[in-house]
Design brief:
Helix content: 40-55%
Largest sheet: 4 strands, mixed
Order of helices and strands: HEEEHEHH
Number of helices: 4
Structural class: alpha+beta
Strand content: 15-25%
Number of strands: 4
Radius of gyration: 15 Å
């Protein structure tokens, strides 16, 4: 029987302050697709860290918090598949807000997971 490793998302794996967000943004390493925009910056923590930003254009606090929870869960389950020495700032694409106004369903876990992993792979390929 295989033993599954419990993947946690402790506070040390989060970007929490405006200073940390600005540090990632200042690197200007940005990658986008239809669903997400991701900014990437190297860190000295020996673990990946995540910050999430969802603008008010996406809807009320309930909708924005759901998107943030979805992004954190994708990151939590993907920690072992992504390079460890990087900070990732994840922003939901403005293109998505236009789709939301037309009453399309919110993105699923699978859609966000694929978009996130594709962008990380693209970022690491460009980072070489």
């Amino acid at each position: 029987m295989a033993v599954m490793k419990r993947l946690a998302f402790p506070k040390s794996a989060r970007l929490t302050s405006n200073e940390q967000f600005r540090a990632v943004l200042s690197q200007k390493k940005r990658f986008s697709n239809e669903l997400l925009t991701i900014y990437v910056a190297e860190n000295d923590c020996r673990r990946p860290r995540l910050g999430v930003s969802v603008g008010k254009a996406f809807g009320n606090a309930v909708v924005r918090n759901r998107l943030k929870r979805l992004a954190r869960e994708v990151f939590r389950q993907s920690q072992e598949q992504i390079p460890a020495d990087f900070d990732y700032l994840l922003i939901f694409s403005r293109k998505l807000t236009k789709k939301q106004t037309s009453k399309l369903p919110a993105p699923t876990f699978e859609q966000v997971n694929k978009a996130f992993l594709d962008l990380v792979a693209h970022a690491m390929q460009k980072n070489k």
